[in-house]
Amino acid sequence: MTNFPATKQNPPSRQVQRQIQRLGLHRLQTVVFQDRHRFRVIVAGRRWGKTRLSKTEIIKGAVSKSNQLVWYVAPTYQQARDIMWDDLKASIPRKMIQKNGVNETRMRIRLINGSIIQLKGADNPESLRGVGLNLVVIDECQDIKKETWETVLQPTLATTGGRAIFIGSPKGFDWFYDNYQKGQAGEVVRDEKGRDVANEWKSWQFPTITSPFIPKKEIEARKRDMDPKSFAQEFMARFENVSGRVYYPFDRNVHVGDYDFDPRLPMFIGMDFNIDPMSAVILQEQPNGEIWAVDECVLYGSNVLETGEELARRYWREMKRRQVQIYPDPAGNNRNHDRGETSLEILRDLGFKEIYFKRKHPPVQDRINTVNRLLRSADGRVILKVDRSCRKLIESLEQTVYKEGSREVDKTRGTEHVGDALGYYADFRHPIKKVQILGVSI
């Protein structure tokens, strides 16, 4: 168990010390906790125990000495509240907190030794300036901008000689990766003047499987629900290159063939309402669990009415049998046309009665990850197959790329729209599960 040193002023009683000891860490968390480097970087898989370690570091940093200022910073203020606030309050012995020392609105706790713990959000960088911190724990670093650390938070440590802990999961080769590499450089490094100096940085990489509280079978089960690259990042804690092809598992030799339309099976249509082109992908879910893209409708310089009429011309028999469902771009519920109707109202007027969409646009990366999982899951299953007649869909899956060094889709080629249409269907019908891993969550 972890012991926190008592302060000379207001030393914790034995009862309080026992309460603190209940914040026990598993072996690898303890390795990080006992390390004395000024800057520590923890790259860890999902549910490894990042929150428990963060909380323990925060409390230790505040009680070890008097009059310390300790911050926990999450990507947003609401995330800081959701991730840490209630758990942190419950973990600090009441005898260590000043009377009326908990401020719910500002998420601030004042301890009897004069130390202050406060939770912050990186979405308001101006609120992070102008203080001297003794310790800052930056959580979910992969979702925080580099500038927030370099120009806002790092200067707050200068006058105090304060320390920083960076915690997160990989999301490409970003500033979090750069900090991780600083910690891998060894105990002695060369400074700007070429002198050998002690390295202030230390870093670790912990896959989820290294947590003793998560059963291996639970992690293996997640391979069925995720694409290989997402699984490698989120569970294996590996940094993966986010540049290159968006739909990286797609392979003509694996996914393309003769996958004909079957009039006996229901139809599912994914639609993107970009004007040039208007894009629709026609899919059928097979009895064996596969999903076949059997047709596409891609019209340049067109509109919703013309696209809907073309789909109705091709599939009027299926429409009569109510075998057609449409999964469109949610923007179609808001966009007005010359005749005063939304895109979805136009489709309904044409006879498409079953239209399903999310009220808010699903995050772009969620749609992409869902399609990639259908192309190939982390355990190797291939669910999505594409008929060779779907030339624009094949082009989209092959040629849509990210902007160099970012997770933003490069739209200059104009190849992304048919893939977007597929993504609206996939995200609604086959969303990636919000994983609840069985086992102790610490």
From TrEMBL:
Question: What keywords would UniProt list here?
Answer: Viral release from host cell
Q: Which InterPro entries match?
A: P-loop_NTPase (IPR027417), Terminase_6C (IPR035421)
Q: Which residues form the Terminase large subunit gp17-like C-terminal domain?
A: 269-417
Keyword Membrane part of the UniProt annotation = no
| Magnesium in keyword set | no
**Domain of life (superkingdom):** Bacteria
Q: Which Pfam families match?
A: Terminase_6C, Terminase_6N
Name of the molecule in the record: Terminase
Per the UniProt record, the source organism is Paracoccus litorisediminis
